[in-house]
Amino acid sequence: MNPAETARVLAPGGRLLTQQVGSRNDLELNVALGAPSPDPEAWTLAVAVDRLRDHGFDVVDAQEEMIPYVFHDIGAVVFHLRTVPWQIRDFDPERYGRPLRSLHERIRSAGAFTARNHRFLIEAVLPGS
Fold first, then answer.
1. What percentage of the chain carries pLDDT values higher than 70?
2. Which of 16, 23, 32, 79 is 20 to 30 Å apart from 55, CA to CA?
3. Which candidate, 68, 70, 64, 74, places its Cα nearest to that of 102?
4. What angle do CA 20, 41, 126 make, to 5 degrees?
5. 100, 77 in Cβ contact below 8 A?
6. Where are the beta strands (DSSP E) in the chain?
7. Which domains are delineated in the chain?
8. Three-state secondary structure along 29-53?
9. Distance between alpha carbon 111 and the CA centroid of its chain, in Å?
10. Three-class SS state of 62
11. Which tens digit of pLDDT belongs to each residue from 1-50?
């Protein structure tokens, strides 16, 4: 989200409704696999709201959720990480073989592994004249 560009193209009185993926998204996977993690405070609801307000928006509603995302087998973990390559940028099943096996055993023992999807929703208005 680029608040300056949004403010530039939105008509006065216009409304912005956006859902964002926060920087705490699926951090449990990064930790479990020993992969680098993004700064968990880099992109949060508070950061986004501050940026919008800095560009003249009035925030009407703002909500943040950490939604459980449950993996029941290691194949699902590998599939997920291959479809969202930004989560672990250097992900390769061979490179992460040892921690994947460890997570596989953890899933077998516990029955599942839960990560959390970090999402937030903002409704904002660009004041009109």
1. 99
2. 23
3. 74
4. 45
5. yes
6. 15-21, 58-71, 113-125
7. 3-125 (3.40.50.150)
8. HHHHHCCCCCCCCCCCHHHHHHHHH
9. 25
10. strand
11. 899 999 999 999 999 999 999 999 999 999 999 999 999 999 999 999 99
